[in-house]
Amino acid sequence: MADDAVVVDDLHKHFGSTYALRGVSLTVPAGTVCGLLGPNGAGKTTAVRIVTTLLRADSGRVTVAGHDVTREPDQVRRSLGLAGQAATVDGLLTGVQNLVMIGKLYHLPSKVAKARADELLERFSLTDAGGRIAKEYSGGMRRRLDLAASLVAAPPVLVLDEPTTGLDPHARAETWDVIEELVRAGTTLLLTTQYLEEADRLADQIVVVDHGEVVADGTPAALKAEVGGQRLEVTVVGDPAAARAVLARHGTVTLRDGRLSVDAAGGASRVAEVAAALADAGIEVDDLGLHRPSLDEVFLRLTGHAPTDTNDTADSADVAHTTPTSEEIPV
Amino acid sequence: MSTLDLTLPAGATNPLARLGWAVRDSVTVAGRSLRQIRRVPERLSDVTIQPVMFVLLFAEVFGTAITVPGGGSYHEYLLPGIIAQTTVFGCFGASVSMATDLHEGFVDRLRSLPIARSSIITGRLLAELATASFGLAVTLVVGVIVSWRVHRGVGHTLLGLLVLAVFLIAMTWLGLLIGMLVRSPDAVPGILFPVLFPVTFLANTFVPLKGLPGWLRAVAEWNPVSAVVAATRDEFGNPNPGISSWPLRHALPVSLGWGVGLIVVFGGLALLRWRKVSAG
Ligand SMILES: Nc1ncnc2c1ncn2[C@@H]1O[C@H](COP(=O)(O)OP(=O)(O)OP(=O)(O)O)[C@@H](O)[C@H]1O
Ligand SMILES: [Mg+2]
């Protein structure tokens, strides 16, 4: 389909005994943003490398802008820009030299390559650093230069592997602005991230992968809804049993970390109602409020990992595996 | 957003045009490597300061102790040896740069671009050859300063340089091959030094082979480096004693044969390896 910029169908890839991808499929309609979300080792980079022709899949099919990655890799490379997880600019060349070289390799006329380099450096607030070698850049500047490098030929499809990892909040916000601007202008974006906030803000569609498999797929709103709507949470002083009885009138009550929670479809009016009922029953309330599930919770529930427990040791991985589901004790 | 015309030129449709682009891309990739040298001039030290230091040290220190059998200047005897040694060590720089580009993901950046993948490796080859040629030129100039001369005219001098060029290409391919086999650039010295030192020293590079015990002498005489050194000494008209054995009496064809053979072997293996590495 011409309207789908990226189609990934049943992708499998293994490295020795490690199965990095076990049947991943996703479709990114042209002009939209797909966020590939997953914990460390989920297979995000592997998928990105296959989509960008850097790695061959064991099986499965990928098309980019209508071109098959194995049969027409050159057509695919002409249609996409890639900023990998590790910045791949040449540390010994200046910012300008890096971008001009890439322009030349796209066979742009030298004048155009030079003008494009200046334009991109300006866009990423790197104009002043353009004459310095990239090795002297800060990590954030290097990532921005890498992103600029992926945009040299203004490709219709952009693939970004964790584009804001390691950026300070200011640089991250700036990168988001650039990305949003590109998307408004019609660029299709496939982006991997471990930051749910990032996926929530940028993506039209989120694909959650874990251990090489898609565990959920949908709009950010749909994913949040899948985990449940907003809940009313109450912490009481002393034994929660009495409070549980009061809350049970509104649905199934769960107790987690000393906090009771119940479905709160009624919103604010439900809060007032429950507060009054608890006061009537003479229960001393420590804390009471509405809680909307965050994407973090969605992520945690779906994968059993905290989303940002990077470099996790065996210990923290164990902790992360204890999902809220298994901790929630129906009262 | 951009006011520039960023339409990419149409891809090459015929083999000749494809070759044209591949050559142009190789030059672009090579230009990038050469541009790096301006930033890190130390990189040139392998091919300049080191041979120059060898010329000066050997000439002044050994030169007083060693008399060239059959007469002649030790400086003139020495220089072809130093050049051959530098040529062999050229594979060191090539493997470090290749390994670094792979390791740091720069090769991935290039592979994501619509260029002939072969131009990534031929570009690297061109850059290494250019660097080595520059080093060779510097060494020859210093040689002339310490009174090294050629004596057999332009034709033979060019033949001598041809022998060196062929051998240099073979050693550069070997370097690229090693660079693609190691896990990281740090591993290169550990692998290459134990091989390169014996190969350059167990030869007629710095001292005549006459004094070596029989079996060692046979090894040294059949060492391709000895043939290269003997051939260049011959062609430059520099002292070339102790060429009683067959390979050294026919040093020119033997050295060219070694050179071409090694280019085929190392180049072939390197291209095979590159195919595997670049296929992903
Ligand atoms: N070249 C390789 N050789 C061996 N195993 C690999 C290779 N590349 C990836 N893997 C393995 O495949 C799995 C998926 O890795 P991948 O890099 O795709 O994960 P990721 O989702 O990008 O993780 P991260 O968030 O840490 O970047 C991991 O178990 C990883 O160890
Ligand atoms: Mg990754």
Structural summary, described in words:
- The complex is a heterodimer of chains A (331) and B (280).
- Chain A is 37% helix and 26% strand.
- Chain A has 13 helices and 15 strands.
- The C terminus of chain A is likely disordered.
- Chain A is α/β, with parallel strands linked by helices.
- In chain A, strand 9 and strand 10 form a beta hairpin.
- In chain A, strands 6-7-8-3-9-10 form a 6-stranded mixed β-sheet, sandwiched between helices. In chain A, strands 14-11-13-12-15 form a 5-stranded antiparallel β-sheet.
- Chain A folds into 2 domains: 253 residues, P-loop containing nucleotide triphosphate hydrolases (Rossmann fold), CATH 3.40.50.300; 63 residues, Alpha-Beta Plaits (2-Layer Sandwich).
- Chain B is mainly alpha-helical and 280 residues long.
- Chain B has one domain.
- Chains A and B meet through helix 2, helix 3 and helix 4 of A and helix 1 and helix 4 of B.
Tell me the major beta sheet of chain B: none
CATH topology of the largest domain in chain A: Rossmann fold
- Name the chain pair whose interface involves the most residues: A-B, 40 and 32 residues
Strand % of chain B is under 5%
Radius of gyration of chain B: 21 Å
Distance between the termini of chain A: 51 Å
Molecules bound to protein: adenosine-5'-triphosphate, magnesium ion
In terms of topology, how is this protein built?
The complex is a heterodimer of chains A (331) and B (280).
Chain A: E1 4-15, E2 18-29, E3 33-37, H1 44-51, E4 59-64, E5 67-68, H2 73-79, E6 80-83, H3 95-105, H4 110-123, H5 139-150, E7 157-161, H6 169-184, E8 188-193, H7 196-202, E9 205-210, E10 213-218, H8 220-227, E11 231-236, H9 241-247, E12 254-256, E13 259-263, H10 268-280, E14 285-291, H11 295-303, H12 314-321, H13 324-327, E15 329-330
Parallel strand pairs in A: 3-8, 3-9, 6-7, 7-8
Antiparallel strand pairs in A: 1-2, 1-4, 4-5, 9-10, 11-13, 11-14, 12-13, 12-15
Helix pairs in contact in A: 3-4, 8-11
Chain B: H1 15-39, H2 49-62, H3 74-103, H4 106-111, H5 118-145, H6 153-181, H7 187-201, H8 214-222, H9 224-236, H10 246-249, H11 251-279
Helix pairs in contact in B: 1-5, 2-3, 3-5, 3-6, 3-7, 3-9, 5-6, 6-9, 6-11, 9-11
Adenosine-5'-triphosphate is lined by residues 15, 18, 20, 38, 40-46, 85, 194 of chain A.
